[in-house]
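Deliverable D4.2, example record:
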Amino acid sequence: MAKTIMIQGTMSNAGKSLIVAGLCRIFKQDGFRVAPFKSQNMALNSFITEEGLEMGRAQVVQAEAAGVKPEVAMNPILLKPTNDVGSQVIVNGISIGNMPAREYFAYKKELVPEIQKAFDKLSNEYDIIVIEGAGSPAEINLKKDDIVNMGMAKMANAPVLLVGDIDRGGVFAQLYGTVMLLEQEERDRIVGLIVNKFRGDKTILDPGLAMIEEKLKIPVAGVVPYMNVDIEDEDSLGSHLEGTERTEHTKAEIAVIRFPRISNFTDFQVFSIMPEIQLRYVDKAQDLGRPDLVILPGSKNTIEDLLWMRQNGLEAAILKLEAEGVPIFGICGGFQMLGETLSDPHGMETDLAPLKVRGMGLLPVRTVFGKEKTRTRVAGAFASVDGVLAGLSGRDVEGYEIHMGETVRAVPPLSFVLESQSGSHLAKMDGCQKRNTYGTYIHGIFDKEGIAEAVAEGLMKKKGISGGVEAISYQEYKEEQYERLAGILRESLDMEEIYRIMGITQHK
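Output generated by the structure prediction step:
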């Protein structure tokens, strides 16, 4: 059976996901086969495995850091919020429907056997499992039937490291208050405290560390500095949607519409590491300006986010830019919005079924939301692409699809792909184009080497800027960031003590 360590936080955004990813890379470097695990994740940023199953991207990132293939056992329960009081519930990669929060809280204890089964599977296949909690274990109104914090620690018999965020202030109150709100049995599971996101001279912090150790009788396992690493982190969703600064190297600007229910925001991260591109996120018409490309991303509530754009003036601003020749690119929900109509006969998107709304009318497609979700990985090639992004023609493409709607097109596709699901391969057409408006269902479409560069070169050519774009490998870039993260954590954490806590006395 695998050795375990669990990372819990005093609050959301304490940095749990990043520390789990870093520990996964450290254990990999030390020769162990390691897997991440989070029993229940709440996120709109999801991923499709090779088996066609849906899981949270945070565990995919952690699996990448561990150097192993992501599998749905690493995240057996995924909650995708549909509104302020309900979520789509995904168990073992498959949606079982939408539930109001109160209904889910009453139901979730029935999922304990599924969580245990997933954990046991990983435990039999790996040397170490790094478990991530959610929010805080001291939410006293949620502790009953907990399945993700101390309840999970008990299921896995895992020692816990508690992380506090000093950047927000009050880190000692966070740590002390969290521990004191726990039952004695739960307190006993906490074997170390971590102060995260520290800036400044650590010697000034040392007296406080000594006092918190004395008050709680729990040692401080490390002080982690505020890390300047570029790693996808669900707890830092806001920071990833801040965009990049314009510099002397900037040659083109991409604006991404920041929907209230934006999903899979990582689809555009590759542009954030390109010096030639300024990436901006926009949620107000007055802030749109005149970018060189507008991207409409995925959305968990496509119709509501379309109506949101219509009401706040963004739709009209985008239509004006398109008429002036600015290219528009829609992905998944954004692709659906660009069409002629969106129909929801079964109430999959809203409670107003049957509902049919007008799309933006830039692509000759019609979308109907059905009851079955498409979950598949795809690979293939772009078709003959016209207009500003003609440089994409014939290039290899790969990624994954997650959507409820089925879209009918009246023009040739944007790409030809093979979808892989349940061991089968099916040839199909994806997306379409009209003038300089492009649409696709493929998440991760810009990640494959050469795609983002071709987009940037097309935008530069339209502006009359000569010269190419420096070739990049997004995968190599991510590997560099994982290595950097691991190096910082090795310097900041007492790894010898962490190995001892897990019962590992000799490194491989």
